[in-house]
């Protein structure tokens, strides 16, 4: 069989201006602006209606008023530039040189060998006959250790119990607990000066809004400095005239225990992470050195019997808070007196620090806030009714209560543990109750979705049906999850949701396909409970949240509370006084305080575990591994700093190829006639003629449907068939690259990973004057091919169309419905379209109803096995916006 090199279309897939006359934006800046314009148009969520009512269709985009974006910066702490002496200078002055090093100074790396390293390692990755740049691993490590940039030394200190021993000493009282840390002050200075962030950092708090023609305002929140908390802190700081013109630097902290191995004994570590609120959320999400490991906290352990000792439980909390105070001590002086620091844009500024939000899951929030477990960390709502009335917790409230009531009353009636000194009490302007960050991963995705709703569905089935029938239904739910069609970036679950250890990524992936899996097996109200839970998650994940979005969020919270009552009426639950479910009521306020929650989610710290803890542990000798892990992290930071330095001096721009990968696949057809035979579509040559006419001659008054076939251009030359296309679009709410641009592969291949075929579905733009799904159709790509005709290269797709069912989304599922579009002779409706008319990939999930999945159906053929599908708007956040 001949070997042919695989290639793919690598094009920007955009809405076309006319379905028969697609145009491609060639200019990169115009492309980016076009994509941003598409994204920034907000899509309203349909009104949530009770079961007896009918959901309304979203507002038509053409009826929405045009808006202008406006921004105000804080006048006191406005981030003015200064010189190294702290004297303010002309705001138009150019920044000083980033470094005095020459562009050929590779210190400490061997400069004579650097081109060889880039060439051989970057292109061939093969053994070569020249002398390697490093003699051995030790030599390489020595060179890295000599890198002067990014080297923040690690230190340690020991702590031990100093409390009451009158009841007798126990082993945990005699131990010393070692804490490793690196100076957070130096870490913050390095982070602030990182030139990688020069276009993605805010030096002053700001407020932003849309101004409509009618004079009304629509406030919007995005990155951290757009929130009210940063503005309020600037108000407090700027009361001192000596701080005017300074830059406020909020210190964002996060910690979370993690286990690296259970096979060789329980190996737990307690990393402490740090970031600054000035960098944009997408930078923090992408871990472009904007989330730094600054410590490993101690984890005291004892026997199960001694673990219930009140002295031990108090000591663990005190150990945690005391360690944080000690680690953060170096930042304290610059919390009152501004210091001069180099910033990412090259300028110097007077900066003043403050303790900002703390990212943690609920169990750690309890320790942070010094409250009794099962109470809320943010408010004083009673334990028996968390969704009832309760004022905000605060340091002032606790101080006042301590003067009036005893410790027992504080515990029982207010949920305060008042004999613990919280770390924030040692720092100016810090109140931990106001600094607990929203946590989408642990509160909503792992908490409400996984631990509550998914578990409650199983309890409902077991309570409602016989044991055998309940297992049968649960098996079918697993089958439905397993047969969900493939989709770019979607994790598959071959065995359904039946796995014991759920990761955060597992929970996020399962959310995308679980809703359709339970339809027909549970009451409608349960389906709607899941739907509103998912809608809340996706609304909260927006990169830009407006007053209108907050109204949608509050609306979803209200209906979630209405629909979840089904779990009471069916006997699954007797109350909903659960901290994680209660936490969603605080999100609208937290958005106003801290900006979009996706910049403070614990998924940021959890994913950081991989590079900062788990991979360094695997590289260690496993014995006394912590010191080795610290050394590995130091080297990683030094290499990252060296890369930034070399990049800033223009030393990493060269000829090193990023990829020379070649894929060998089956031979495709070389003519349109043979492609038609390959796809079992004999009409394909005719469709190509119609396509060419529409591209060359069609206008708003006529298309190929209005002319005889003989008048359409004919092409019989060679074509090139490829198996995928790359869609590039603006999707900052999803994990994405610089500036919010996202890439995904759309597959159309007769054999996916050596198995059955995969033909993905796509959104096709039909009317670019209408936003969202109302201006699009759904199609399935059967083949990508290109050819040259009249000095133009045409990039095409053969598609099978889907037809919309109804004029609005399903009122229970909240998703649009489609079915395969058929001709009068019951053959599939097929067309050839230009790839520029493809907006992005679409994910369809079958409409299972109350039928069980047949044994022959799997994820490869489910798009062929069913005749009705939901357009899955929960596939990702961008799909949620366009398919609502």
Description:
The strands form six sheets. Strands 18, 22, 23, 24, 25, 26, 27, 28 and 29 form a nine-stranded antiparallel β-sheet that branches. Strands 4, 5, 6, 9, 12, 13, 14 and 15 form an eight-stranded mixed β-sheet that branches. The protein has a four-stranded mixed β-sheet with strand order 2-19-20-21. The chain is an alpha+beta fold and 884 residues long. A hairpin with a 5-residue loop joins strand 10 and strand 11. The chain is built from 26 helices and 29 strands. The relative contact order is 0.13. Helix 14 packs across helix 15 (504-518). The protein folds into four domains: 13-37 and 665-882, no CATH class; 104-135, no CATH class; 154-370 and 420-437 and 600-648, no CATH class; 440-597, no CATH class. The longest helix is centred in the middle third of the chain and has 25 residues, at 440-464. The protein is globular, with a radius of gyration of 30 Å. Helix content is 33%, strand content 18%.
Give a short synopsis of this structure:
The protein has four domains: 243 residues, no CATH class; 32 residues, no CATH class; 284 residues, no CATH class; 158 residues, no CATH class. The protein has 26 helices and 29 strands.
